[in-house]
Amino acid sequence: MREDHVRLHPHAPENAPEVSRVLELLETATEHSRDALSTAPVSAAQTRVMYLIERQPGISLTALRRHLAVAAPSATRLCDRLQAAGFLRRTPSPEDRRETRLDLTEAGTAHLREIRRRREQALRLAMNRMTPGARAALTTGLAALCEAVADVHAPAGELPRR
Predict the structure, then answer these.
(1) Cβ atoms of residues 50 and 108 within 8 Å
(2) Under-70 pLDDT residues of the chain
(3) d(Cα 44, Cα 30) in Å, to the nearest integer?
(4) In this structure, are residues 68 and 49 in contact, taking their beta carbons and an 8 Å threshold?
(5) How many CB atoms are closer than 10 A to CB 82?
(6) How far is it, in rounded angstroms, from Cα 100 to Cα 89?
(7) Nearest in space to 19 (alpha carbons), one of 161, 162, 146, 154
(8) How far is CA 151 from the centre of its chain?
(9) Dihedral angle sign, alpha carbons of residues 95, 104, 159, 39
(10) What is the pLDDT of residue 38?
């Protein structure tokens, strides 16, 4: 986390239980709204891989494995399943033919777009029950939380994408 966030928000850790509760509620909502929030036909782990590849097109299999903190065979299996589903394309790296680049196919991009559409629809229904001020505060707070999480989880020596 950047130091200016710590200075501006010295009591943020006191709110961690509320944020944790929101995450728990989202997990519960996912269980109750499987159709609206489902990632089928791929698993949640495979969807996470797709999000990473979407953010970093052409990421190498090695970099993906490191980012996921998994063994090479696990990353390979995840990618095998995504490729079999038609969501992932592997190509040799032009710089090093031993390295494999990963990109989403049009079908993969469309699948993520559909997941987002369904999730946004479910969130709109819930957020319509909130006051405009509460919605604005939520949006501002979540944007700041996303930035802080990105700062904390950025690989050493790499700035998070914004």
Answers:
(1) yes
(2) 1-13, 29-39, 151-162
(3) 11
(4) yes
(5) 25
(6) 10
(7) 146
(8) 14
(9) negative
(10) 65
Closest CA to 138 of 153, 124, 127: 127
**pLDDT value of residue 12:** 54
* Measured distance CA(47)–CA(4) in Å, rounded: 33
pTM reported for the whole predicted model: 0.68
Cis peptide leading into residue 13 (ω within 30°):
no
Radius of gyration for the alpha carbons in the chain, expressed in angstroms and rounded: 18
Nearest to 104 by CA among 96, 113, 117, 94: 113
Q: Which SS3 state, helix, strand or coil, does residue 162 take? A: coil
> For residue 97, what pLDDT is reported?
80
In the prediction, which pLDDT does 3 show?
41
- In the numeric block, the tokens 């996470």 are attached to 48
What's the confidence (pLDDT) of residue 21? 77
* Nearest by Cα to 100 from 54, 41, 53, 68: 53
| Separation CA 141–CA 102 (nearest Å) | 33
CA distance 80 to 92: 15
pLDDT at 124: 87
Which run of H or of E encompasses 89? strand 88-92
